[in-house]
Write a structure and sequence with these properties.
Layout lengths: L16 E15 L4 E2 L3 E2 L3 E19 L8 E6 L2 E2 L4 H11 L9 E9 L10 H19 L5 H15 L11 E4 L13 E3 L12 E5 L10 H6 L7 H21 L2 H20 L10 H17 L4 E4 L5 E5 L4 H12 L8 E5 L5 E3 L9
Parallel strand pairs: 5-7
Antiparallel strand pairs: 1-4, 1-14, 2-3, 4-7, 4-8, 5-6, 8-9, 10-12, 10-13, 11-12
Helix pairs in contact: 2-3, 5-6
Bound molecules: ligand DP6.
Length: 369
């Protein structure tokens, strides 16, 4: 599939008004996306676990507009309240996607969105949020083109979500998603995420991710700014090459369930991401002292107990603790006893690998009625 395959040839049906609702999960990258080119094209391929408990639910109510339409028309509600400061992000998303969704200016939209996790948790909602909105728009497009197949619908939703926020393209399906062209992965593409096409050992099918909320404040440097700092970064080329290699190295790890090697790759990826931040110009650091305390505790626990827990980080201070189902009790105990003291207000979120976005029944089918 190339970009032009997502431009519709025309629609065979009509829809005057309606409402659709989708819930899309967050995801945590094992191999990190950090650096991008024009049009949200990633500088390197990435690979993620789709999550489950952390998700965004979005309802899209739509009503056909009359008269000449030169602009987009929408209202935005976040957790029940009008949220005008999110509007520029949606406006930009509509601008980037209008070529692929030619009906966008034909409707007035009411977008109502909410997260399962607290807004000020330091957990980015852009991935799940853009994924949920893209699915709502694809749901509407499917009504205009009833012959559209489910596979195409999901692929285009991933494509659109990417245009909103890169990592969002990995939040449509479960449970292991690859985004970005990689010579060893058939079907991989810079345009959208795909389900990892090779064998995945059962140990990875119900992996846990406990997110330790170390710092719930707003980050000083956004991901978008961080990506930009990879242009002209002294280590960029090697880093991009390394991401390709790590994806290749993970193939036998996923097939055989080799947890020791999994840990080596995943922790190295997390620290490399932050090393890129610390060696950017200007440099910056998103880890906090408690992030490091937790990392050292995890290493100590692993040395002493031969456990398979490990950590990863996203673009922030929070720590994702990853572990297999069979170690669940032991690790929960360790987290409670040793790690939550390093969390802001002792808060953490128990999540696990998930199966992708879901269509929900809308409470009311006709909001404007
Ligand atoms: C560190 O997808 O948030 O979480 O494309 O600018 O919206 P934009 O960036 P975003 O970057 C995510 C970066 C990351 C790594 C990852 O999820 O792969």
């Amino acid at each position: 599939m190339v970009e032009n395959d997502f431009v519709p040839a025309g629609y065979t049906a009509q829809s005057e008004r309606g409402k659709v609702t989708w819930r899309a999960p967050s995801n945590i990258a094992l191999v990190k996306y950090w650096g991008k080119r024009e049009n949200q094209i990633p500088a390197n391929p990435s690979l993620s676990f789709t999550l489950d408990a952390c998700n965004t639910t979005t309802s899209l109510s739509y009503e056909k507009r009359n008269g000449k339409r030169t602009d987009f028309s929408f209202e935005l509600f976040f957790e029940g309240k009008a949220k005008d400061d999110f509007k520029p992000k949606i406006e930009l998303f509509f601008k980037r996607t209008k070529h692929y969704l030619p009906f966008l200016k034909d409707y007035h939209f009411k977008i109502e969105t909410s997260n399962s996790f607290p807004h000020s948790s330091g957990i980015a909602s852009s991935a799940s949020g853009m994924a949920a909105l893209s699915l709502c728009l694809m749901d509407l497009e499917k009504q205009l083109d009833p012959d559209m197949g489910m596979d195409f619908m999901l692929q285009k939703a991933s494509f659109l979500a990417r245009l909103g926020s890169g990592s969002a393209c990995r939040s449509i399906q479960g449970n292991l998603i690859q985004w970005g062209a990689h010579s060893g992965i058939p079907g991989s593409s810079d345009q959208y995420g795909i389900q990892y096409p090779f064998r995945v050992h059962k140990v990875f099918k119900n992996y846990h991710d406990t997110i330790l909320l170390v710092d719930k404040g707003k980050k000083q440097v956004s991901s978008t700014m961080g990506h930009n700092l990879m242009h002209g970064h002294p280590f960029a080329d090697n880093r991009f090459k390394q991401a390709h290699e790590n994806i290749s190295r993970l193939k036998p790890v996923f097939a055989d369930g080799n947890l020791k090697e999994f840990i080596n790759i995943v922790e190295s990826e997390a620290l490399t991401l932050h090393a890129m931040m610390m060696t950017s110009e200007p440099y910056f650091m998103l880890m906090k002292p408690n992030t490091l305390e937790i990392i050292h505790k995890i290493w100590e626990f692993r040395r002493e107990s031969n456990s398979n827990l490990c950590f990863t980080l996203d673009a922030g201070a929070n720590v994702h603790v990853l572990y297999p189902e069979f170690e669940k009790e032991k690790v929960h105990q360790f987290i409670k006893n040793e790690l939550i003291v390093f969390c802001e207000k002792e808060q953490y979120i128990c999540d696990r690998i998930g199966f992708g976005a879901k269509r929900l029944k809308s409470v009311s089918d006709n909001l404007y009625g």
